[in-house]
Write a structure and sequence with these properties.
The complex is a heterotrimer of chains A (282), B (295) and C (254).
Chain A (H helix, E strand, L loop, with lengths): L1 H37 L5 H5 L12 H32 L4 H15 L2 H15 L6 H25 L3 H9 L4 H29 L3 H5 L20 H9 L4 H31 L6
Helix pairs in contact in A: 1-11, 3-6, 3-8, 3-10, 4-6, 5-6, 6-8, 7-8, 8-11, 10-11
Chain B lengths: L1 H44 L2 H6 L3 E2 L6 E2 L2 H32 L2 H16 L2 H19 L8 H26 L2 H9 L4 H12 L1 H16 L3 H6 L17 H10 L7 H29 L6
Antiparallel strand pairs in B: 1-2
Chain C lengths: L7 E12 L2 E12 L3 E5 L6 H8 L9 E9 L2 E2 L7 H7 E4 L10 H11 L6 H11 L3 H4 L12 H14 L4 E5 L7 H14 L4 E5 L3 H7 L2 E6 L2 E7 H6 L4 H7 L5
Parallel strand pairs in C: 3-8, 3-9, 6-7, 7-8
Antiparallel strand pairs in C: 1-2, 1-4, 4-5, 9-10
Helix pairs in contact in C: 3-6, 4-6, 6-7
Classes of the chains: A mainly alpha (282), B mainly alpha (295), C alpha/beta (254).
């Protein structure tokens, strides 16, 4: 009888181990496959060429510039809005019922599919405000998309600041905004920054909302101002991956390598930020 | 008097911060308004029941038909495939990380799983198209280039980290004295997990599944690339299908006249999508944030 | 011998504090003498910390708290209509049970309060004076711009005292300032409290009766929210007037 139990236990352990190992294996296969597909297309002019009908001449220049523009603008709008909202919710909001609904709403927004944000961007920014398919539409749409994510992670970081610091600040005669901006925010900053980096890397990889607002897929110019139309790295990848020719699959793979390297660097930076400021946690 | 100035600043800042938060509920209001308005116009010409129950979706070419079930069916197949992949694996991985794994090993495995979560969906679509489908084609020569199976698997990989990390938190939240009590009675780890921890964490586990389903429903780029653009009522995973999200992308890539019926279809199915994910999110979040009972 | 009229720093009249329905402080009236150390003692839960917090209006942050009666500092009613709680806290400082320096440098800890209140004139001098008065200067003068969190527990608490002193308050409230510290650090702070009385009025809540008898001039004994006895420490500890006081002092109940 006891034998059967230990056999079950053994089997379960092996199962768990295998599944976990399988997950790691899948990740490795994914990365290796992409490297194999795309690495041969990574030449210098891959970065300096515009897209072309000929896969061997095609490049990422417009996509890289477009992504840089749209992400910078997105960060510019979403970071202050998100951190300010989180500060409000944690430091200023009265503990009343209706605030709970605000929180629930933010959670729902965080789980709303990105394509719905695309529809929103299309109807409001492109059509209603007439911003057409410009960087304005793209960045504002992405801002709305990652705003709930920023708010949630910033709230967590702010909540982690111990109350004893707030009490100490009030005890020397500080007003609420001095406590919030002078003590709480600086103390929460490492956690907030980690969350920001992760949210922005999410925006970097987003494709659907930008397609919806009309970011073009065949762009042979770089944007020069926020009113210009643009393309982005994920959209360019999508465009190439959707073509039947194998060579286009290859440069799509190369584009993915670029994207993943960039994301890896960003996330590594987030981990570094978290580590470096860990020692200030009491 | 600087004293009064500071008091004014405090109130001003309070107001400004509130304005920032208000963006969130304005966003929701606008989403509901937009989806509602366009759907309203749509349902002036199309019968609601034809939409919800019709089995042929052909809004762009004549003869047009606006039955949404093929899209729902396509979405469902992806979701089912994803759940089959992600739920058992996610729970087992969470169990492994919690009960069997050394802290050192888990500090390596957890980030690896998180990396899976951070990879953009377009990369997964590419992977499905260029690796998984060709691999399966060796097993199933009749399989289409676009099919629900590869897409489902890849969406499953995408939502796996979500389930494993939420379940991991759920397992951790079970009070340690309950766990220790079970071990003290001579239970094996397998028994502790299946008979003590999982029942205690069952509402959170269910919540994680619901939230993962919501994520799978809303998944766009992977299915657009890998599952196809052929709306059809089928339960055969080897065939090409189209999900709600892929349809919306398809329309916006084409030339749709403003205000035309095709434009409105996007919002009508978008409204359906939003409604489905909203319900799932509310249910999932509710159970995730409610207190777990430790008995 | 003529009795010198001792100045009163803080006047408390009919103070009652409620947490919702529960009464934490019941109709307490007393005077705290200026430039003296007054210990507030009593068993756990008798309301000492609650009363202390009411003096610098820190109870304002607990929404269920209702405060009745009045507390006056030099004829200004601290709970008066036109009084800004910020003003109160500028004049009445606080040191908490667990040291809570800001996660900034030692220097920044001291200057932050005066800076945000707009009266920071000579930061270097202020830092030196405050640290000297809290017996910390010699130990940290070479590392003013290092993190305050690197200091030991006792040093951090002295830093918190220096931070309170930097605001130049009339009164310093101390809520069990040594309970989180080891005996050596405790001894240092106790002797520091003795030195501080020449400049400040000090109110110390403590659950340690020996400490109260060591450091204070006057003692206040609270029990279940009521004021039982108030008088010179020597008297309270040798010839208490009330039976309850004697019971508590002699350890008949905790």
């Amino acid at each position: 009888m006891v034998e059967a139990r230990y056999r079950k236990q053994r089997f379960f352990l092996v199962l768990c181990r295998s599944v976990t190992f399988a997950a790691v294996l899948v990740l490795s296969i994914l990365i290796i496959h992409i490297l194999l597909e795309g690495v041969s297309y990574l030449r210098w002019d891959f970065f300096t060429n515009f897209p072309s009908r000929f896969p061997h001449k095609a490049g990422l220049k417009s996509a890289l510039y477009g992504s840089a523009w749209v992400i910078s603008m997105t960060a510019l709008f979403s970071v202050p809005l998100g951190v300010a909202s989180a500060l409000y919710l944690e430091e200023y909001a009265p503990k009343k019922r209706y605030i709970n609904w605000v929180q629930i709403n933010i959670l729902n927004l965080a789980g709303t599919p990105s394509i719905v944000y695309g529809l929103l961007g299309l109807a409001i920014f492109v059509r209603f405000f007439g911003l057409d398919r410009s960087l304005w539409s793209g960045s504002l749409t992405l801002t709305l998309l990652i705003l709930p994510v920023i708010i949630i992670s910033s709230q967590e970081a702010i909540r982690a600041v111990p109350d004893s610091i707030r009490h100490a600040a009030y005890s020397v005669g500080a007003r609420k905004f001095q406590v919030a901006f002078g003590q709480v925010l600086p103390a929460a900053l490492p956690g907030i920054m980690t969350g920001l980096i992760l949210a922005i890397s999410r925006a970097v990889g987003e494709t659907a909302p930008l397609i919806m607002i009309g970011a073009l897929s065949y762009v042979a110019f770089v944007p020069e101002g926020p009113w210009d139309s643009f393309t982005s790295l994920p959209i360019q990848i999508y465009n190439w991956a959707g073509r039947p020719q194998a060579a286009f699959h290859g440069i799509a793979g190369a584009g993915i390598i670029v994207l993943l390297v960039f994301l890896f660097v960003m996330n590594f930076g987030a981990v570094m930020v978290r580590q470096r400021f860990q020692r200030y946690r009491n | 008097m600087y004293l009064n100035k500071f008091k004014l600043i405090d109130h001003g800042i309070h107001g400004f911060l509130f304005l920032c938060v208000s963006v969130t509920f304005v966003t929701t209001g606008t989403v509901v308004w937009i989806l509602g308005q366009e759907s309203f116009v749509f349902f002036q010409s199309i019968n609601l029941f034809d939409f919800l129950l019709g089995t042929r979706w052909e809004p762009l070419l004549d003869p047009k038909s606006f039955g949404v079930l093929p899209l729902v069916c396509g979405t469902l197949m992806i979701v089912v495939g994803a759940i089959i992949v992600a739920v058992p694996a996610g729970i087992l991985i969470a169990a492994y990380l919690n009960e069997f794994c050394s802290p050192k090993l888990s500090s390596i495995i957890k980030p690896v799983i998180e990396i899976l979560a951070g990879i953009p969906t377009i990369v997964y679509g590419y992977f499905a198209l260029t690796f998984i489908t060709p691999a399966f084609k060796m097993l199933f020569p009749d399989m289409g280039v676009f099919n629900a199976l590869s897409a489902g698997i890849v969406v499953g990989i995408m939502i796996l980290p979500m389930i494993s990390s939420l379940c991991d938190d759920a397992f951790r939240a079970v009070p340690s004295d309950i766990r220790e009590g079970a071990y003290a009675l001579g239970a094996t780890p397998y028994e502790v997990i299946t008979q003590v921890i999982m029942p205690a964490a069952k509402s959170r586990i269910a919540a994680s599944i619901v939230l993962a389903v919501s994520r799978a429903i809303g998944e766009t780029m992977a299915v657009t690339l890998a599952a196809g653009a052929t709306p059809r009522m089928t339960f055969n995973p080897l065939e090409s299908i189209q999900t709600i999200t892929a349809y919306i992308v398809q329309v916006s890539l084409g030339d749709t006249p403003r205000g035309g019926i095709e434009y409105q279809t996007c919002f009508a199915v978008g409204a359906l999508l939003f409604f489905m994910t909203l319900i799932m999110n509310m249910i999932g979040n509710h159970f995730l944030h409610s207190k777990t009972v430790g008995k | 011998m003529k009795e010198i009229e001792e100045e009163i720093a803080l006047k408390v009249r009919n103070l009652s504090i409620f947490y919702g329905e529960t009464c934490a402080i019941d109709d307490v009236s007393l005077d705290f003498k200026k430039n003296k150390v007054t210990a507030i003692i009593g068993p756990s839960g008798c309301g000492k910390s609650t009363m202390l917090r009411s003096f610098n209006r820190m109870n304002d942050f607990y929404p269920t708290v209702v405060t009745k009666g009045n507390v006056s500092l030099e004829n200004a009613e601290l709970y008066g209509e036109e009084i800004d709680p910020i003003d109160v806290r500028r004049n009445i400082g606080m040191v908490f049970q667990r040291p809570n320096p800001f996660p900034k440098t030692i220097y920044q800890n001291i200057v932050w309060g005066p800076k945000i209140n707009g009266f920071l004139k000579d930061p270097e001098e202020l830092v030196e004076t405050s640290l000297k008065r809290s017996a910390l200067w010699e130990e940290v003068k070479d590392r003013l711009h290092e993190s305050a969190l690197d200091l030991s527990g006792g040093q951090q608490q002295r830093l918190c005292i220096a931070r309170a002193i930097a605001m130049n308050p009339e009164i310093i409230l101390m809520d069990e300032p040594c309970s989180a510290l080891d005996p050596r650090a405790t001894a240092r702070i106790e002797s520091l409290i003795g030195e501080l009385r020449s400049r400040y009025t000090i109110l110390v809540v403590t659950h340690n009766m020996q400490q109260a008898s060591r450091i204070s001039d006057d003692t206040v004994f609270l029990f279940e929210g009521k004021l039982i006895e108030h008088g010179p420490t020597k008297t309270i500890f040798t010839k208490p007037k009330m039976q309850k006081t004697e019971d508590y002092i002699t350890g008949r109940f905790g």
